[in-house]
């Protein structure tokens, strides 16, 4: 299916403060089965690892842009050349959903070749949820963005998030 059996992919995690980007990195470290024992984070904001997906060896670099940083634009410029931007919001925090628009605008100018994806995190907080799945789905469908929900705490859709994006990038969906 693929012409090349080794791929190098870079994902950026973007979104408001406390939407769960660092928790996503932790969940990957804890829950994904990696090809090698290489789980030695250089920084809590950065993750390198490799995994095999549909017989392709993927070397993946996942980088978090903290939600609150004066160097936000600078960080975004560091994301030039990334393959995927994953925008995070918190399903209990409507502001975090609204602010995705701004993050998308910035990333659109900078991450020129990236595919964009959105994840709504913290779906384990059933009683505190303020954004329904259907509402967000309609919103992101209109923007033409792929969207799904996750829980870093309960390890819901963590591995799948990595793989769905790899599938999209490898197949250039
Ligand atoms: N209940 C629940 N809490 C979560 C989940 N993911 C993250 N949290 C909590 O939300 C808080 C913020 O999570 P972080 O992962 O630090 O958020 P962040 O997006 O990295 O935040 P910044 O780096 O400040 O931009 C922490 O207290 C986490 O434990 C989740 O899936 N469910
Ligand atoms: Mg963080």
Cofactors and ligands? guanosine-5'-triphosphate, magnesium ion
Radius of gyration equals 15 Å
Main sheet strand line-up: 2-3-1-4-5-6
Number of helices: 6
Overall structural class, as computed from helix and strand content, comes to: alpha/beta
Count of structural domains: 1
Features:
single chain; 173 residues; alpha/beta; Rossmann fold; six-stranded mixed sheet; binds guanosine-5'-triphosphate; binds magnesium ion; Small_GTPase; GTP binding; GTPase activity
Helix and strand layout, with pairings?
Elements: E1 6-15, H1 21-31, E2 46-53, E3 56-64, H2 72-78, E4 84-90, H3 94-98, H4 100-110, E5 115-121, H5 133-143, E6 146-149, H6 158-171
Parallel strand pairs: 1-3, 1-4, 4-5, 5-6
Antiparallel strand pairs: 2-3
The structure holds guanosine-5'-triphosphate and magnesium ion (MG).
The site of magnesium ion has 4 residues, from helix 1.
Structure explained in plain terms:
- The mean pLDDT is about 85.
- The chain has a 6-stranded mixed beta sheet with strand order 2-3-1-4-5-6.
- It has one domain (about 5-170): 3-Layer(aba) Sandwich (Rossmann fold).
- It has about 170 residues and is of the alpha/beta class.
- β5, α5 (about 135-145) and β6 (about 145-150) form a beta-alpha-beta unit.
- It has helices at about 20-30, 70-80, 95-100, 100-110, 135-145, 160-170, and strands at about 5-15, 45-55, 55-65, 85-90, 115-120, 145-150.
- The chain has 6 helices and 6 strands; from the N terminus they run βαββαβααβαβα.
- Magnesium ion binds near residues 21 and 66.
- Guanosine-5'-triphosphate binds near residues 122 and 153.
- Keywords: Nucleotide-binding.
